[in-house]
Amino acid sequence: MRPRDTVDLLLLAAIWGASFLFMRMAAPAFGPFALVAVRVGLAAAVLLPLLAWQGQLGALKRHAGPIAVVGALNSALPFVLFTVAALAINTGLSAIFNATTPLWTALVAWLWLHDRPAPARVVGLALGFAGVLALAAGKASLQPGEHGISPALAIAACIAAALCYGVAANFAKRHLSGVPPMALAAGSQLSATLILIGPALWFWPTTMPSASDWTVAVLLAVVCSGVAYVLYFRLIAHIGPAGASSVTFLIPLFAVVWGWLVLGEPPTWGMAAGGAVILLGTAIATGLLRWPGRHERSPSQR
């Protein structure tokens, strides 16, 4: 990678790591549906003009149906689930469970698209999911916390959100190949907004969030969704999808640091060990880490 690409990759990881911090900070004031509606609505307001400037609105119209499905599975539902989780578990832990997304993507591809992984990658899947179970077992208290959400429910929400991402990636591979990435990004945020308008109005907080809460929500939308998508698709153009996907391994590190610096959430040895096992399994399952002396055929790009 060029130095600029490395900077973009680190900046993207820092931004997406901060998204877990911002959800943790703003979720109590807004609630999951209202916060996510603000997030995707403002992100759509940032991305749609860029799409029009690139002359790609036609691609959005032609593929509106499948893009709406991706909006539900890749934005609306997982964002709500991660925001629910933010009411009960800390920033770093949410990000570590988010790092299982490539594992779920590979498993869904195997079961749905019959894209069978090589034996070494099956070992990676097993190792990664073993890390998930070990980390969840140590944190999955059933006792509801301050906001009525138990850590066990929060962990289940994180895992379900990562599964949604995995299904969305494979759906996009099957139904949206060749669609301009910016059309997919802007369209998915627009469709997620339309999906969440009703629930957001129904569950809108009775007490108006403070100016600081609104500031966090705007940062979550404009920076963590709008700017982040621009960075992500620029990385795809410069270093390819596989290189851009390596951001997955950096996000938990930044999330843990942000949570520690801003909210005083110290990392634990259990989180470090479980996260390391999950990331090791993910690296093997996605082919980023290979057995010495073995040369596997690279999987098809999605």
What does this protein look like?
The chain is an all-alpha fold. It has one domain. It contains twelve helices and no strands. Helix 1 packs across helix 4, helix 5 packs parallel to helix 12 and helix 7 packs antiparallel against helix 12. The C terminus is likely disordered.
Brief summary:
77% of the residues lie in helices and 0% in strands. The chain contains 12 helices and no strands.
Break the fold down into its secondary structure elements and pairings.
Elements: H1 3-30, H2 32-53, H3 57-62, H4 64-86, H5 91-98, H6 101-112, H7 119-139, H8 151-175, H9 181-202, H10 211-245, H11 251-263, H12 269-285
* Average predicted confidence as pLDDT: 88
- Topology order in helix (H) and strand (E) letters: HHHHHHHHHHHH
DSSP strand content: under 5%
Measured as a percent range, the helix fraction is over 70%
Radius of gyration: 19 Å
Shape: globular
Number of strands: 0
Q: Total helix count?
A: 12
Major sheet, described briefly? none
Unreliable segments of 5+ consecutive residues: 295-302
Tell me the distance between the termini: 21 Å
* Tally of structural domains: 1
Class by SSE composition: mainly alpha
